[in-house]
Amino acid sequence: MSTKLINPMNETPVRVSTAPARPRSLQGKIVGLLDISKPGGNLFLDRLEQLLRERFQVANVVRTTKPTYSKPAPPGIIEQLRAVDAVVEALAD
Amino acid sequence: MLDIGQSAPAIPGLDLGSDAALIVFFETDCPTCRLAVPYLNKLARGARVIGISQDDQAATNHFTQQLATAFPVQRDSGLALSRRFDLTFVPSLFLIDHNGRVLRSHFGFDKAVLNEIAMQMRCPPVAEDFDGAPQSKPGCMSRHLEPKVDGEFAPAPASGFIRSVPASVIEVPDGEDLFEYCFRNFGDALPVIPPTPERIASMLSGAAVNPNEIIARVPPCYGEATVEKIAANAVMAGCIPDMMRVLLPLVRAVCDERLNVHGVQATTHFAAPLVIINGPIRNELGFAYRQNAFSNVARANSTLGRALQLILLNIGGARPDGIDMSTLGNPGKFCYCIAEHEEANPWEPFHVERGFQHQQSALTLFAAEAPHGVSEHTARTPEQVLKSISYALATVWTYRACLGFDAVVVLSPEHARTIHRAGWTKQKAREFLFENTGVPVRAYQDAPDAEGSQLISKYQEILINGERCYQKFRSPDSIHIVVVGGTAGKFSAVIGSWAAGPRGSEMVTYPI
Questions:
Q1: Which pLDDT score, from 0 to 100, does residue B18 have?
Q2: Beta-carbon separation of B505 and A13 below 8 A
Q3: Does residue A66 form part of some domain?
Q4: Is B223 in contact with A12 (Cβ distance < 8 A)?
Q5: Contact criterion met (CB below 8 Å) for A17 and B147
Q6: Is A55 among the domain residues?
Q7: Does any domain span residue A46?
Q8: Residue A12: inside a domain
Q9: Of B113, B214, B362, B446, which one has the greatest count of Cβ atoms within 10 A?
Q10: How many independent structural domains does chain A possess?
Q11: What residues of A are in contact with residue B139 (Cβ under 8 Å)?
């Protein structure tokens, strides 16, 4: 005979999405750089932007910054990054 | 996305007549869409709301029945309308006038936007603050933009989204040690009481609420905290059934967007939510507020604090081996619950200062570091006692950093008495602490790269005892004073915050 327990854990179904395929090359692509507004994030992304432009011949780099690192990105930022081919998010510190 | 002034595509079977209408695109498995439905139901009492489901008929029927949608819903067959309206996310809201022109468009959930739309539709506000739902929440990607699986649109999961349904029942085979089973599968690295149906039924007797009602969605995973799930975690923590009176408002409060427990539970910082209990409930349920108030003296503090932590772990999903990335953690992540010693507080109780009546019980939440003790046994004046505390306050977050945080000063009854008998109000004590807590300018001279040094252009320079200092806090309101502890011993404590203010975490107080 078994003992019954009421499940105390989260049972809210999680939506699973398939990630889009990664670009095979960055040449001619638009890359988004998201700064979450932590100290030093801009230094990292400045250098990354330089490398992307010099070494990878990206078509453009879109820079955007979250208002605060402590909360999820507001919808406007997500909408802005919808238009790019790839995103790098700088968590920094 | 269609913008203001553009003509909305015709919706088959919809005659706008002479009214404005709110068109809402949703997916049946999108948590944000589900969050929005009760508010849209309210709006539909006085205005025309039309739902457009991106999913199949079975999932749509299940959705409308489960959530009791009070507005007509039709399917977007083949997602043609979604393309024409050029959605990115759901829920997407389009307010259109009787000529079919877009008056307003919005995606995601936002209480302020819903209230503005209600006003535009000449309806009363539909979304209240402090109802446990976040102020805003991003939605999900529109179905037509989802990556394709085998040439088809990703199917919606079976219509089993849990709302107002009982928790599942786990059968533990005979011979298995129940405590070991629970230890392995639930909880916080300490043993818990097995959440059997009988114990949960008893716990639910302490709450006159439908067990399937969702009290809040707990960040960062936004798990649905039904009354039954809360009761299951309360059983595991060892609460008495009466504690449900505190736990339900506590779960609402911890999910209040101002506290930002999403960030608190995921940060690398030390923060853990500190619960401060005020009012008659302290004595009714036996909360400790005399000696050992922070530790192990009372079942009420220990079990309520632990139940909250179990709910954050088990329903919110911020497990210390995963999403909770705290570098060093905090012993308060097992339990962090105090009550004010109002009987030894010569001033008004903390919850009265926070806007509640004396006889109203209340709980306050603060994203807190561990307590930092301050011993001061020889000073005899308010100034000297508070000066000793100000030196501890200056070290909150890190010594050279100013402005970005708050602090709770836990005054021992003896220190409170010394300050009060000289005729000082609590406000005067707070202002004294504010004006006398600073970091000497000389402390920055040898460390231009140190944390806090880069921000000195934003700091306010003041003189403390004739020395140039930067003011530590933004305002006296950043310093919260509570009176707690035994009547013997001149020990107080300073508790620093996580990042404070609208960009981080704000203290919240809820009635019980």
A1: 73
A2: no
A3: yes
A4: yes
A5: yes
A6: yes
A7: yes
A8: no
A9: B362
A10: 1
A11: 75
Going by C-beta distance under 8 Å and a sequence separation of 6 or more, which residues neighbour residue A35? A41, A42, A45, A63, A64, A65, A66, A90, A92
Q: Point out the residue among A5, A12, A79 whose CB comes nearest to the CB of B88.
A: A79
CB B471, CB B427: distance < 8 Å? no
pTM of the predicted model as reported, rounded to 2 decimal places: 0.76
C-alpha–C-alpha distance, residues B78 and B84, integer Å: 12
- Chain A hits for B146, CB-CB cut-off 8 Å, are 17
Calpha distance B20→B406 (Å, rounded)? 47
| DSSP per position, B163-192 | SS-PPPEEEEPTTS-HHHHHHHHSSSSS--
User: What's the rounded Cα separation, in Å, for the pair B37 and B31?
Assistant: 10
Among candidate residues B292, B331, B338, the one with its CA nearest the CA of residue B309:
B331
Chain B residues lying within 8 Å of A79, measured CB to CB: 88, 107
Domain that holds residue A34: 30-90
How far apart CA B460 and CA B224 sit, in angstroms, is 44
Nearest-Cα residue of chain A relative to residue B157: A15
Question: If 0-12 CB within 10 Å is exposed, 13-18 middle and 19+ buried, where does residue B6 land?
Answer: middle
Q: Is B362 helix (H, G, I), strand (E, B) or coil?
A: strand
User: pLDDT tens across A27-75, in order?
Assistant: 999 999 999 988 888 889 999 999 999 999 999 999 999 988 888 888 7
Look at chain A and count its residues. Answer: 93
For residues B441 and B368, give the distance between their C-alpha atoms in angstroms, rounded to a whole number.
27
User: Which residue type occupies B395?
Assistant: T
ipTM of the shown complex? 0.83
Question: Which of A4, A70, A93 is the closest to B196 by Cβ?
Answer: A4
